[in-house]
């Protein structure tokens, strides 16, 4: 395979400008090139983002007014379930793995990922898992209508759509674990001479930490869903009290995966933001070392707070107290990160191109989501707000305004480097402001719904919730349509964008900008650069 | 409640320039608490919110100042500092103290919230797909409580009533000023018993008993819903708590008992439905009326989800026209909103058939 250019393979090629070995579909199926695979991940993520987005719009269309209009309640439940699973596992996680594939080798001066063929397999598992998830809607009995958390005993009652979901989760887990092994090995073994760990760009650090989180928790999730599978078909009764099991056991296992999962999504987003804010502040990242330590402490703490998702299950008082204190503690390293980003901007020379706008949108709204997280950490308050729209608002501030906005920041930031052409700055800014406005229109009002007591995952609601739901639905359709503008901007840039200079962003200083031409050649750093 | 609602509605209307519809209220905060503990939790939330808002304003005040003053477009030149140990230590330590300030009142409130000891009365609540069963352990009253909103309103065939989706056939009646301990469990899947104005939410876990408590301050009707996804009718199993004076409560108990006394003459008590799912199908007598009373009436008596009410000749005529074998098959396999065997797989086909025959006999 010609894409493997590690030391063992030697430097057999004289022609350094050569491209892919095959063309057309065969190129993409057989590719072992980290840039190709990064591209595949990103397009797959965007496709799933649209699929999951359509499901969100079905949900919001049904909730536009009281009464059942668009779908039956069972279909509504399948939409909430698959929207969650597809957005988490199909859109956000693959998007950041796409960034990792593109950026990590270029940022540390490596020629490719450590295991290029495994890299290919990691990606090509995903479309099959995604297809299983979508197909589950069309089997007898329909998809799993249990929420993305898959709680039994309800999950035991579901039809074969549930089994397809379980298998999809297994496959996604395999893909994530292989991707993580690849990322860790690449970062630890393939850095260019002089690229010490504490010199790595922050984005690389965040992925190193995230990859460890993934390896630690994906097997836990696989175990949880396997136990569901055997409970469903082999009468194992792990989660059935009548057989000596406990339904709440599943929640413990699920959230032991689920809480680190939140940071698996958030930490690479922190990494992107830590590249973008210094570049547009024309000033180095403030407190690099403390950023690294803060990220690592968030990762460690994320294993110790899982039951704050379970305050109302009847866990003992002592457990509620412990999990409340541990959860509140996460505010400290998270606060350090936010302060560091703002200190980076302080006395900088700021400019506000689209990547910076999305990064600032991230900073502002993610912090807001952090504050509602702090509110929810307080047990007596959480008991009132748990399973209401307040929680829905909270995690969309973290997931959408957090992870998704940071992914947009990363795309606008690195696209010129990847394709060698600029996107349309005016349209990019429109994309940001439309997304920002409609995102808040959709989700800010959901705080009020939750405070007033509207439960989540209901297809119909009492009349006092009508006005805010209407506003929220209008916002959701606006947000969804704004993302088509993003697709247009990217395609326009690829087909007819202006030629990009080697370093379009004045303040960018990592290797991909300083040591590589634009667009980046198919193979880079076949001879490792030497870092001073 | 009214003043808060009006004020918050005004705020919302100003914010969004939105014309309010007749029924809707745009509440911006937690529901007005109806219990002393609720007031404490409400206050705790307000305290945390204010602390967060202050931090938010300070932190983002700094950010917007930098955005305004340190722009390239106003000619600001970038400084090159990138660390300051003193500042970093300070902003790591200060949040600790703020968090301790939050943790102290939170812990106090939590200790009070979890103290279910020495109740004045205890009600056992059991969640089922998709109804609640209430069992007054001291007073010996028990009943099912199901959604009272007609299906036509849900399907947009009739105008929606004031308490759309938040109304039940049999509300939970409690005396004011008494500590009511609620023990919560479930018969099939997870549910959660949630009444916002009482600041009570407890998951119902099948096979396990959990508890919580409330003491209502003033008479009134307080409405809530199941808060844990429990299947397709999750959104349609509300909770209504009616708080009355102690005399009214005693009178209500007496009425319930005389009602139940009348029902007790029937072969099987309504309360027996609790254990029906576990009863051995083979040993049960094939008695259509008994099965109807145990299982079917929960929906059919109240004509829920379009279930034909026994004795409603207009509703039954087209069904009877399909012939008994078809009806038997539908009842056993499930049709539209009706689950197979009324959701009780332990029933034998014969028991279900007998119950169908019984209902058909009432409609002829």
Task: Describe this entry's structure for a reader.
The complex is a heterodimer of chains A (532) and B (364). With 532 residues, chain A is mainly alpha-helical. In chain A, 67% of the residues lie in helices and 0% in strands. In chain A, α3 (73-108) packs antiparallel against α4 (116-135) and α3 (73-108) runs parallel beside α6 (160-189). Helix content of chain B is 41%, strand content 16%. With 364 residues, chain B is of the alpha+beta class. The chains are: A mainly alpha (532), B alpha+beta (364). At the A-B interface, α3, α8, α9, α10 and α11 of A face α2, α3, β7 and β9 of B.
Task: Using brief descriptors, characterize the structure shown.
heterodimer, A: 532 residues, mainly alpha, disordered N terminus, B: 364 residues, alpha+beta, Helix Hairpins, Immunoglobulin-like, Cytochrome Bc1 Complex, Chain D, domain 2, five-stranded mixed sheet
Q: What is the CATH T-level topology of the largest domain in chain B? A: Immunoglobulin-like
- Overall structural class of chain A, as computed from helix and strand content, comes to mainly alpha
- What is the CATH superfamily of the largest domain in chain B? Cupredoxins -  blue copper proteins
Number of domains of chain B: 3
Number of strand elements of chain A? 0
Biggest interface, chains and residues, is: A-B, 96 and 99 residues
Q: Roughly what percent helix of chain A?
A: 55-70%
Overall body shape of chain B: elongated
Q: What percentage of amino acids of chain A are in beta strands?
A: under 5%
**Number of beta strands of chain B:** 10
Radius of gyration of chain B: 27 Å
Question: Portion of residues in helices of chain B?
Answer: 40-55%
The parts of chain B where pLDDT drops under 50 for at least 5 residues are 1-24, 266-284
The whole-angstrom Rg of chain A is 23 Å
Q: How is the largest sheet of chain B built, in terms of strand order?
A: 3-2-1-5-8
**Tally of separate helices of chain B:** 10
Gap between N and C termini of chain A: 32 Å
């Amino acid at each position: 395979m010609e894409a493997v250019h590690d030391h063992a393979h030697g430097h057999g090629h004289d022609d350094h400008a050569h491209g892919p070995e095959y063309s057309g579909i065969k190129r993409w199926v057989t590719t072992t090139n980290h840039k190709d695979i990064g591209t595949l991940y990103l397009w797959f993520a965007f496709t799933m983002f649209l699929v999951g987005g359509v499901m969100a719009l079905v949900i919001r269309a049904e909730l536009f007014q009281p009464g059942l209009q668009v779908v039956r309640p069972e279909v509504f439940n399948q939409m909430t379930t698959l929207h969650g699973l597809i957005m988490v596992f199909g859109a956000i996680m693959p998007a950041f793995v796409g960034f990792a594939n593109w950026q990590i080798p270029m940022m540390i001066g490596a020629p490719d990922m450590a295991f290029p063929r495994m890299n290919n397999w990691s990606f090509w598992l995903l479309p099959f898992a995604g297809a299983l998830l979508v197909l589950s809607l069309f089997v007898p009995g329909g998809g799993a209508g249990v929420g993305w958390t898959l709680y039994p005993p309800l999950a035991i009652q579901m039809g074969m759509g549930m089994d397809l979901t379980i298998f999809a989760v297994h496959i996604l887990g395999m893909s994530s674990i292989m991707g993580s092994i690849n990322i860790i090995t690449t970062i630890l073994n393939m850095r260019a001479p002089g690229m010490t760990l504490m010199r790595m760009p922050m984005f690389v650090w965040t992925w190193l930490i995230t990859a460890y989180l993934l390896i630690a928790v994906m097997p836990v999730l696989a175990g949880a869903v396997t136990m569901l599978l055997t409970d469903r078909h082999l009468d194992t009764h792990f989660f059935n009290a009548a057989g000596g099991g406990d339904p709440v056991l599943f929640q413990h296992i699920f959230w032991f995966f689920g809480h680190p999962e939140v940071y698996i999504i958030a930490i690479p987003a922190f990494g992107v933001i830590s590249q973008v804010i210094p570049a547009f502040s024309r000033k180095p990242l403030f407190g690099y070392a403390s950023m690294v330590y803060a990220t690592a402490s968030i990762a460690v703490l994320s294993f110790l707070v899982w039951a704050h998702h379970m305050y109302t299950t009847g866990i003992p008082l002592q457990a509620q107290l412990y999990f409340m204190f541990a959860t509140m503690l996460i505010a400290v390293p998270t606060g350090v990160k936010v302060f560091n980003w703002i200190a980076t901007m302080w006395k900088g020379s700021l400019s506000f191109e689209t990547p910076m706008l999305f990064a600032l949108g991230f900073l502002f709204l993610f912090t807001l989501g952090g504050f509602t997280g702090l509110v929810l950490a307080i047990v007596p308050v959480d008991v009132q707000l748990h399973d209401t729209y307040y929680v829905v608002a909270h995690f969309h501030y973290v997931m959408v305004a957090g992870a998704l906005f940071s992914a947009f920041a990363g795309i606008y930031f690195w696209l010129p480097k990847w394709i060698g052409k600029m996107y349309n700055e005016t349209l990019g800014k429109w994309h940001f402001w439309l997304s920002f406005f409609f995102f808040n229109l959709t989700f800010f009002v959901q705080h009020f719904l939750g405070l007033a007591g509207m439960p989540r995952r209901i297809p119909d609601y009492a009349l006092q919730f009508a006005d805010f739901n209407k506003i929220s639905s209008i916002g959701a359709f606006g947000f969804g349509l704004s993302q088509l503008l993003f697709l247009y901007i990217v395609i326009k840039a690829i087909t007819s964008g202006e030629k990009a200079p080697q370093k379009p962003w004045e303040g960018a200083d990592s290797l991909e900008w300083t040591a590589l031409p634009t667009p980046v050649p198919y193979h880079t750093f076949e001879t490792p650069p030497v870092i001073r | 409640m009214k003043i808060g609602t009006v004020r918050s509605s005004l705020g919302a209307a100003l914010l969004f320039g939105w014309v309010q519809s007749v029924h809707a209220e745009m509440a911006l905060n937690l529901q007005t608490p109806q219990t002393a503990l609720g007031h404490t939790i409400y206050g705790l939330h307000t305290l945390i919110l204010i602390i967060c808002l202050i931090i938010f304003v300070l932190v983002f005040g700094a950010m917007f100042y930098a955005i305004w003053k340190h722009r390239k477009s106003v000619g600001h030149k970038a400084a090159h500092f990138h660390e300051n140990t003193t500042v970093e230590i300070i902003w790591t330590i200060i949040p600790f103290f703020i968090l301790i300030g939050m943790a102290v009142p939170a812990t106090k409130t939590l200790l009070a919230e979890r103290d279910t000891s020495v109740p004045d009365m205890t009600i056992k609540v059991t969640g089922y797909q998709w109804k609640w069963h209430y069992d007054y352990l001291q007073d010996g009253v028990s009943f099912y409580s199901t959604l009272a909103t007609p299906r036509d309103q849900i399907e947009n065939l009739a105008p929606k009533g004031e308490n759309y989706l938040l109304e039940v056939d049999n509300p939970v009646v409690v005396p004011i000023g008494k500590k009511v301990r609620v023990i919560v469990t479930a018969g099939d899947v997870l549910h959660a018993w949630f009444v916002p104005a009482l600041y009570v939410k407890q998951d119902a876990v099948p096979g396990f008993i959990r508890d919580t408590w409330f003491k209502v301050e003033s008479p009134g009707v307080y409405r809530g819903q199941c808060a844990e996804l429990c299947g397709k009718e999750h959104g349609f199993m509300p909770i209504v708590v009616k708080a009355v004076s102690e005399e009214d409560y005693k009178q209500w108990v007496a009425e319930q008992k005389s009602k139940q006394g009348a029902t007790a003459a029937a072969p099987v008590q309504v309360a027996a439905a609790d254990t029906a799912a576990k009863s051995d199908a083979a040993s049960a007598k094939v008695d259509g009326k008994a099965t109807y009373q145990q299982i079917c009436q929960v929906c059919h008596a109240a004509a829920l989800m379009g279930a034909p009410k026994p004795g409603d000749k207009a509703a039954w005529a087209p069904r009877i026209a399909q012939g008994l074998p078809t009806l038997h098959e539908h009842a056993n396999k499930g049709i539209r909103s009706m689950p197979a065997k009324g959701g009780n797989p332990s029933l034998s086909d014969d028991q279900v058939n007998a119950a169908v025959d019984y209902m058909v006999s009432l409609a002829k």
